[in-house]
Design goal:
two-stranded antiparallel ribbon, 15% strand, 3 domains, alpha+beta, three-stranded mixed sheet
Length: 214
């Protein structure tokens, strides 16, 4: 949409604000013999304010979510029985065959939910699956139990020079080839504080297609 801003536009706007602030700060330290020795103190202070703002936003978000949940529970506690009774009456007036009714503000009635299976004993469930499931069903059943065999097929390549991900406009310094349907997060040993590491992830099938198309 025309009124949406991209990550790159937001980044460029923030960079402009930071550069203006940096210029002002630099003018205040022109007499210091250490030159830019004030930068670490300034950057850490900025990060501290960012983290404090993020914590405040999360706290406020939780408070708002909790308030919404409390309001909904109070609504049903006080008026839920009346609400259900009146809906039942309305459906009965229509002949009693319908499971729900349409109102100006939404629908109300009865809806059948699907059953849910939880695994409480992984070994017992896996043993039963091996004995009873077809191959494709078995693969689907055990897919979430053990990722170690897939991890052995992850390949990472450090690039000699940063490259551009044209989909996002961001730079990346590491290329990662992963089994189809997987996401891999690089291990990191970083100087802190530091921005998140960028990487380009590509499925093994897509990588093979590109290599064969050369």
């Amino acid at each position: 949409m025309a009124n949406e801003t991209t990550d790159i536009e937001v980044r460029d706007e923030i960079l402009g604000i930071l550069e203006a602030e940096f210029t002002v700060m630099a003018k205040h330290h022109t007499d210091e013999p250490e030159g830019l020795s004030w930068v670490p103190e300034w950057l850490l202070g900025k990060l501290a304010r960012i983290e404090a703002a993020e914590a405040d936003i999360k706290k406020r978000y939780r408070e708002l979510i909790n308030h919404c949940g409390a309001e909904a529970r109070a609504l049903f506690y006080r008026y839920g029985d009346t609400f259900r009774s009146e809906v039942d009456k309305a459906m009965a007036a229509q002949g009693g065959k319908a499971k729900s009714i349409s109102l100006l503000t939404g629908r109300a009635g009865y809806r059948k939910s699907a059953g849910r299976l939880d695994i409480v004993d992984v070994k017992a469930a896996a043993a039963w699956a091996i004995d009873n499931l077809e191959r494709d069903e078995l693969i689907a059943a055990i897919a979430s139990l053990n990722k170690t065999p897939l991890l052995a097929h992850v390949e990472t390549t450090d690039l000699k020079e940063p490259a551009i991900d044209f989909a996002t406009g961001e730079e990346f310094t590491t290329a990662v080839a992963v089994p189809d349907g997987c996401v891999y997060h690089l291990p990191e040993e970083r100087f802190y504080p530091a921005p998140p590491q960028r990487q380009l992830t590509m499925s093994k099938s897509k990588l093979k297609e590109l290599e064969e198309g050369r």
